[in-house]
Amino acid sequence: MIPRPFELHSPSTLSEATLLLKNTDDSKALAGGQSLVPLMKLRLVSPAHIVDLGKIPGLSYVREEKSRLLIGSMTTHDEVATSPLVNRRCRTLSEAASRIGDQQVRNRGTIGGTLCHADPAGDVPAAIVALEAELKVAGHRRKRVIKAKDFFQDMFTTSLRQDEIVTEVSVPVFPPRSGGAYLKLGRGASDLATVGVAAVITLDGKGACKDARLALAGVGSTPVRATKAEDVLRGQKPSDDDLVAEAGEKASEMSNPSSDIRGSAEYKREMFKV
Ligand SMILES: Cc1cc2nc3c(=O)[nH]c(=O)nc-3n(C[C@H](O)[C@H](O)[C@H](O)COP(=O)(O)OP(=O)(O)OC[C@H]3O[C@@H](n4cnc5c(N)ncnc54)[C@H](O)[C@@H]3O)c2cc1C
User: Fold this and answer.
1) Which of 4, 215, 246, 252 could join 126 via S-S bond, C-beta 3.0 to 4.6 A?
2) Which residues touch 73 (CB under 8 Å, ≥6 apart)?
């Protein structure tokens, strides 16, 4: 299908972009276009104004500062997935980015775009919640920082205001003695998660679990932190199979998935245990 007519704006600065978003009724930012353009083609959304972020310099980078990874919002999924720095310092995030769609989608789609799209079955949103990341946001008149746990409000709904643009994702690097992963059950190379689990586990000097952070994708209207499963693991040796199975049970209890084309709610709840 062909989208309804719209006016395309290509600002070259962030302040120009936020002003355009503020002053134009019914406008949307455009990043990689991998979610917005299909929605426009299907006419599920038909913004009158599109504000392309692609000409604004300085929004694509990955660097480490003061034990945090700073990732520009226009950094593509491929750049996140293949960054040696992200892989070394925050493996959960590189694994999540590497599981998005196919290579073409990862070449175009951006970390800011997938967070702002806020699909509850998205891979990176769950990872960002487990990692306790923060999002730096610029509005027309002010900047602010939003914690990942406060960013996702509902299905496809974030706490961004109309004139606000996400400029950076700031992720604490793994503490010492930590490991992490993102596991996804999907229907093929180019599909969202039937279920997904993002994890970061930190051990103490004796090999017991000092901290566990787990977040689930595909559970309900937003990514969900599986706090009851984390409580099961904390203070225990995570090599114990019964303990891991109990954590899986608790994660499943905290999920509230819907039946959809990817599977029944019952199947998804069962898969969270695995
Ligand atoms: C075939 C296919 C398969 C896919 N598979 C997966 C998958 O397996 N897992 C997965 O998680 N996702 C998947 N996706 C979605 C993909 O991750 C998109 O890249 C992502 O959802 C949107 O990123 P984008 O940069 O393309 O954003 P856009 O499509 O450009 O924008 C998405 C939304 O975010 C807003 N926005 C974008 N950037 C900003 C910003 N910086 N500040 C404020 N608002 C902003 C836009 O206004 C729009 O509402 C798939 C997409 C396709 C087409």
Assistant:
1) 215
2) 31, 53, 59, 110, 111, 112, 113, 165, 166, 167, 168, 169
**CA–CA dist 203, 210 (Å, integer):** 5
pTM of the model: 0.96
Tell whether ligand 1 has an atom less than 6 A from the beta carbon of residue 112. Answer: yes
Instruction: Write the pLDDT tens digit of every residue in 176-215.
Output: 999 999 999 988 777 899 999 999 999 999 999 999 999 9
The pLDDT value recorded for residue 25 is: 80
Q: How many C-alpha atoms does 43 have within 13 Å on its Cβ side?
A: 5
Of 114, 115, 111, nearest to 94 by C-alpha is 111
Q: 212, 228, 213, 218: which is closest to 185 by C-alpha? A: 218
Ligand 1 neighbourhood includes 33 CB (under 6 angstroms): yes
The reply to whether ligand 1 has any atom less than 6 angstroms from the CB of 32 is yes
Expressed in angstroms and rounded, the spacing between residue 140 Cα and the centre of ligand 1 is: 23
CA separation for the pair 72, 81 (Å, rounded): 14
Q: What is the pLDDT of residues 79-138, one digit of tens each?
A: 999 999 999 999 999 999 999 999 999 999 999 999 999 999 999 999 999 999 999 999
Instruction: Please tell me the distance between residue 114's alpha carbon and the centre of ligand 1 in angstroms.
Output: 4
